[in-house]
Amino acid sequence: MDRYAVVGNPIAHSRSPQIHAAFARQTGQALRYDALLAPVDGFARTVADFRARGGRGLNVTVPFKLEAFALATRRTPRAEMAGAVNTLAFEADAILGDNTDGAGLVRDLEGNLGFALAGCRILLLGAGGACRGALLPLLASQPAALTIANRSVAKAAALAALFAPEAGAASLDACGFDALAGRRFDLVINATSASLSGALPPLPPGLYAEGALAYDMMYGRGDTPFMAAARADGAARIADGLGMLVEQAAESFALWRGVRPDTAAVLAELRRQIDGG
């Protein structure tokens, strides 16, 4: 039986084994998927041991995505642009590194939430790894404009400069949070880590255009401060990142197995469990 796993530290909370087991049942794939706790200084050793025991691929979560990028001997274009790897596929003489996070975000937005990205105005909050992983797939969806806002304007500006060649016809700019005053957006994505600590990015009021969607990449925490503030500020729709989690997993599964699972039922079951419904 082919073996896969998710590796991270911590890892006990991961829902990836449940998700991939559901995908395997649905598609008739014979595989085993585990959760591996790697020491913070032992990622490469954990990967090598898993591969030596016949492992075929790994999902990678915090804090190892940069180490996975360095470990990969070849990478997909989206992994190169993201500067981080969340999926490893072991080949005969190589380790392929991919980043499925941004593709999972776009699939959740367009497929699950029915939000049309083409021609819309996007505000992306943050300038860390989550933001960087999302940028290429978002720009490929041909929005009218994409703004990166961050506490450190220099970090946001550096990302905008890096991705400028990929922007196509979209207007791509960067600014601090205070410079958002007076601007309105169709989609606001919280890619900061603020929701982990129950904090809120310092956003000015009036950001949301008519019919706008507020999307927090965090999931499983109910109404985050960002989601509550967006609702109060006039966002027409609110969503968390649970769908992104399931969709990025489906991207990894398709890379490994050559078949794309149907995510709807898996997402609905996870939502039922998390929301207690």
Question: How many DSSP-defined strands?
Answer: 12
How do the SSEs run, as a string of H and E?
EHEHEHEHEEHEHEHEEEHEHH
Q: Using only CA atoms, what is the Rg?
A: 19 Å
Stretches with pLDDT under 50, minimum 5 residues: none
Helix and strand arrangement:
Elements: E1 2-8, H1 16-27, E2 31-37, H2 43-52, E3 55-60, H3 65-71, E4 74-75, H4 77-82, E5 87-90, E6 95-98, H5 101-112, E7 121-125, H6 129-140, E8 145-149, H7 153-163, E9 171-175, E10 185-190, E11 208-216, H8 225-232, E12 237-239, H9 242-257, H10 264-275
Parallel strand pairs: 1-2, 1-3, 4-6, 7-8, 7-10, 8-9, 10-11, 11-12
Antiparallel strand pairs: 3-5, 5-6
Helix pairs in contact: 1-9, 5-6, 5-9
Written account of the structure:
The protein contains 10 helices and 12 strands. By secondary structure, the protein is an alpha/beta fold. The chain is globular and about 55 Å long. Strand 5 and strand 6 (95-98) form a beta hairpin. It has helices spanning 16-27, 43-52, 65-71, 77-82, 101-112, 129-140, 153-163, 225-232, 242-257, 264-275, and strands at 2-8, 31-37, 55-60, 74-75, 87-90, 95-98, 121-125, 145-149, 171-175, 185-190, 208-216, 237-239. The strands form 2 sheets. It has a 6-stranded mixed beta sheet with strand order 2-1-3-5-6-4, with helices on both faces.
